[in-house]
């Protein structure tokens, strides 16, 4: 065992992951499992639950995998009831579930807006309500990690209600960090931006989805070099590493914080490396790019 494993002190702990069977959730579950954490996870996809649970058991972990839609309060409550019987207490909660579809606000129905709010904020409230008593049972505090987004920190056209709901999750998490601090329970957030995943691909409607599919990989690489300071988007394992850090004793004095795992996109605030302007980094293109676009 290396020095980081010793100082992280995750081995033997227990975690609940909401949306933990596929994509970013799967990566987080496997990372925690690899660090010696036993896992209770729920997801909507039975096949992904079976696959991820099998991978965790192959690591020697105790696993509860259950099909449940976290946005449905009764299903979420049933999952937590099962988790409470499976573990006598937990040390970590990771709320991964979220998502939307890019669409102008005035084109979204009341049902669409209500779903966006529940999927990206409402269930987080209920999940934490269920989880805090389980965290208290451990007698040593614990860590809650809520996934928010870069869109909670900027005007995100096409994602208005989603962005508002994630901003609510962000501020709710900060308030809960204050309330739960005396119990030794830390509450932090991870804010991704563009991450290669099925969920992010599904958020893009037609005709853009088809146009994106037709773009060769080298075009995407150049686009990310313009937009992301580190030149490429993080992958799911990068986000999982952030979960490991925030769940571990390496972050034992960190609470109420947003960790932007986005290659630096949030820090850039719209600055771009335009391709024909000899390295100029500005929110708007200069003469070289303007000539290529409009000349």
From TrEMBL:
Pfam families: adh_short_C2 (PF13561). Gene3D superfamilies: NAD(P)-binding Rossmann-like Domain. The keyword Oxidoreductase applies. It comes from the Bacteria. Keywords: Oxidoreductase. InterPro entries: NAD(P)-bd_dom_sf (IPR036291), SDR_DHRS6-like (IPR051122), SDR_fam (IPR002347). Coiled coil: none annotated. GO terms for molecular function: oxidoreductase activity. The keyword Magnesium does not apply. Belongs to the short-chain dehydrogenases/reductases (SDR) family. PANTHER family: DIHYDROANTICAPSIN 7-DEHYDROGENASE. This is NAD(P)-dependent dehydrogenase, short-chain alcohol dehydrogenase family. It comes from Paraburkholderia diazotrophica.
């Amino acid at each position: 065992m290396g020095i980081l494993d010793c100082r992280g002190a995750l081995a033997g702990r227990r975690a609940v992951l909401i949306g933990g069977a596929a994509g970013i959730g799967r990566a987080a579950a496997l990372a925690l499992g690899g660090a010696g954490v036993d896992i209770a996870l729920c997801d909507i996809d039975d096949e992904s639950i079976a696959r991820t649970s099998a991978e965790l058991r192959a690591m020697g972990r105790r696993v509860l995998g259950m099909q449940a839609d976290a946005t449905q309060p009764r299903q979420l409550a049933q999952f937590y009831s099962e988790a409470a019987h499976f573990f006598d207490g937990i040390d970590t909660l990771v709320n991964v579930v979220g998502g939307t579809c890019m669409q102008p606000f005035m084109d979204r129905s009341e049902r669409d807006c209500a779903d966006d709010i529940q999927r990206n904020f409402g269930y987080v409230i209920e999940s934490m309500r269920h989880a805090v008593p389980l965290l208290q049972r451990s007698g040593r505090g614990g860590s809650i990690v809520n996934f928010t987004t870069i869109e909670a920190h900027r005007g995100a056209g096409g994602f208005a209600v989603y962005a508002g709901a994630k901003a609510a999750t962000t501020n709710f998490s900060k308030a809960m960090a204050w309330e739960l601090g005396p119990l030794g329970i830390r509450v932090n957030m991870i804010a991704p931006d563009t991450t290669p995943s099925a969920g992010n691909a599904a958020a893009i409607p037609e005709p853009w989805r088809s146009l994106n599919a037709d773009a060769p990989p080298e075009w995407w690489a150049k686009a990310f070099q313009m937009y992301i300071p580190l030149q490429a988007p993080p992958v799911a394992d990068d986000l999982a590493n952030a979960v490991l850090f925030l769940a571990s004793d390496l972050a034992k004095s960190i609470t109420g914080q947003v960790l932007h795992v986005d290659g630096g996109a949030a820090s850039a605030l719209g600055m771009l490396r335009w391709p024909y302007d000899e390295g100029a980094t500005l929110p708007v293109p200069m003469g070289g790019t303007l000539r290529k676009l409009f000349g």
